[in-house]
């Protein structure tokens, strides 16, 4: 019997055209609509957010009636910013907005857009995205000054061409960049981004933890060893996988998860540094988008980020990854 395929053996080749084609909502949000979003009655801001998305989308409505009748008035600001904690349905609402948008449109995480610019070059990325009705940006966070100015400039050019912006984040737009660099030195760029958005704040509990354990499930070595040698299943030593991620650009991580359904991880242990942790976060996002179940041994996956990391400027990225790791290991436990 041959060993299960290892993610560490995969060297993905993802060309720019494939990257652009992948800018659609993740599989679990393919059917996301305003009608099937279920607001928590204990948190009225969720129902209010649904109406805010509906109003924003009405700006694409057709003009009707006679000569002096006009269609829905376009929002004063070209962007809608959904701000809230983990698992309150922000991505569902953003995907629903994407489905309502007419014509050519794109949906991706913040890192996917910056990676696209890196792969294509700024001018070609602008040409690709220009003319789209909507650029939907999930998990909008600015991690360094370069990204701040890049996204400010990019969104400015796209908005001038008539494109509208939808975004989600765990950070209000006027606080982007806090804790990561000297935000005051880039206040003009940050404020410029903030001014483009109408902000809607959404309260609530993390739905991923409402019906799941509060910690990642450690399945154990026997469960990892029992994973089938079959297509869609991989088994990796955690340390070797982390080393492999250093050899693959994060823009190409989408190629690592092609066709993947279950991933086994052996000997999980705390990550050695921030660079490795951020690469792992990028992989977690791709695994979660692909709805991959995780079966792991060693340390619980929600404890791989050290206390110093959780206290630093990337805290929200790590907490989002922890929330997703809890969900994926619970999926692995249910499947085994």
From TrEMBL:
**Alphabetical list of InterPro entries matching this protein:** ATPase_AFG1-like (IPR005654), P-loop_NTPase (IPR027417)
One Pfam assignment = AFG1_ATPase
What is the recorded name of this protein?
A: Cell division protein ZapE
Q: Which superkingdom does the taxonomy of this entry point to?
A: Bacteria
Q: What is the lineage of its organism?
A: Bacteria, Bacillati, Actinomycetota, Actinomycetes, Micrococcales
What is the name of the gene encoding this protein? Answer: zapE
GO biological process, any: cell division
Q: Give the matching PANTHER family.
A: AFG1-LIKE ATPASE, ATPASE N2B
UniProt keywords, alphabetically: ATP-binding, Cell cycle, Cell division, Nucleotide-binding
């Amino acid at each position: 019997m041959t060993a299960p395929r290892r993610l560490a053996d995969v060297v993905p080749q993802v060309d720019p055209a494939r990257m652009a084609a992948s800018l659609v909502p993740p599989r679990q949000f393919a059917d996301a609509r305003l009608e099937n979003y279920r607001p928590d009655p204990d948190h009225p801001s969720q129902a209010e957010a649904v109406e805010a998305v509906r109003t924003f989308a009405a700006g694409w409505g057709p003009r009707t009636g006679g000569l002096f009748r006009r269609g829905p008035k376009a929002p004063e600001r070209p962007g809608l910013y959904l701000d809230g904690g983990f698992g309150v349905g922000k991505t569902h609402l953003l995907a629903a907005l994407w489905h309502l948008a007419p014509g050519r449109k794109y949906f991706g995480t913040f890192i996917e857009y910056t990676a696209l610019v890196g792969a294509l070059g700024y001018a070609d990325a602008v040409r690709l995205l220009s003319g789209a009705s909507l650029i939907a940006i999930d998990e909008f966070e600015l991690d360094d000054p370069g990204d701040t100015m890049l996204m400010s400039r990019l969104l400015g050019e796209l908005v001038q061409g008539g494109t509208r912006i939808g975004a989600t984040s765990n950070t209000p737009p006027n606080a982007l960049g806090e804790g990561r660099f000297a935000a005051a030195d880039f206040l003009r760029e940050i404020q410029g981004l903030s001014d483009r958005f109408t902000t809607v704040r959404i309260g609530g509990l993390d739905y991923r933890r409402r019906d799941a354990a509060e910690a990642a499930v450690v399945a154990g070595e026997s469960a990892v060893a029992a994973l089938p040698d079959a297509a869609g299943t991989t088994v990796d030593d955690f340390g070797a996988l982390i080393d492999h991620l250093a050899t693959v650009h994060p823009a190409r991580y989408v190629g690592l998860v092609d066709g993947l359904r279950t991933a086994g991880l052996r000997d999980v242990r705390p990550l050695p540094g921030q660079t490795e942790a951020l690469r792992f976060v990028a992989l977690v996002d791709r695994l979660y988008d692909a709805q991959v179940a995780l079966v792991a041994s060693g340390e619980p996956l929600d404890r791989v980020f050290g206390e110093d990391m959780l206290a630093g400027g990337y805290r929200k990225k790590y907490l989002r990854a922890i929330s997703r790791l809890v969900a994926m290991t619970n999926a692995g436990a249910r499947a085994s």
